[in-house]
Structure formats: structure tokens, C-alpha cells
Amino acid sequence: MSYALQPDQVIGIADRLRRALDETLACSDALRDAVDALSTALSGATSAHAAFGDGAEPRVRLSRGIVSHGLAAVAALRRIIAAYVTADDQMATTTSAADGGTAAPLFDPSRFGAHPS
Predict the structure, then answer these.
(1) Which of 34, 67, 71, 114 has the most CB atoms less than 10 A away?
(2) How far apart are the C-alpha atoms of 69 and 24, rounded to whole Å?
(3) Tens-digit pLDDT profile for residues 45-80
């Protein structure tokens, strides 16, 4: 079946994106671990500890948010593609049933430049 977009190609790209987001999640976890370790090491120096926390914590949250939103977008894309393919299949079935049920074509081909044979 021919589609306006290629579902297999879009799903393949979405899978690559999901794998990249999984790797980003692993990096985010490593970032969290490093920030926690450095925060513990700086606990004796109150001002340095506070300044580090103010700078590092938003970046850790951002990295987690990027992964979370990215995975949600990939999941939504997969649902949209599945709905697109399902709707296209239903349209093809409906059109085939309508075509088979009538002796005359659904439109007059002569209006589109073709002459009836």
C-alpha cells in the first residue's frame, strides 16, 4: 500500500530517537550520581555547596525533563502512525466496498480528462 508518508521510515527514525533518549537517560543518571558525589564532597564548605547546588540542580532536572518529554513525544508519534495506517486501511476497505457495489464509477472520468472506453 502506498502512503503519503512512509510509516516504516518514520517508525525507524522514532526507534533511533528512542535509543538515543535511552542513552541520554543513562548520561542523566551519571550526571545525577556525579552531582550527588560532588555535593557530598562539598558539604563541609557551606557557600561552595550552596552555589554548586544552585548551578547543578537545574541542569540535572533539565536533563531528566528532556528525556521524559522526548520519550512521551516518541510514544505519541507511534500512536499517531498506528492510527494513520489503520484509518488508511479502513478508507481503502470502504472505497473498495463502494466501488464493488456500484456498476457506475464513483466519479465521471470524462470530467478529469479521461474518456470512457
Answers:
(1) 67
(2) 12
(3) 989 989 999 999 999 999 999 999 999 999 999 898
Q: Supply the pTM of this predicted model.
A: 0.65
**Residue 25 is which amino acid?**
L
Decide which of 72 and 7 is more confident: 72
The Cα 74–Cα 101 span in angstroms is: 41
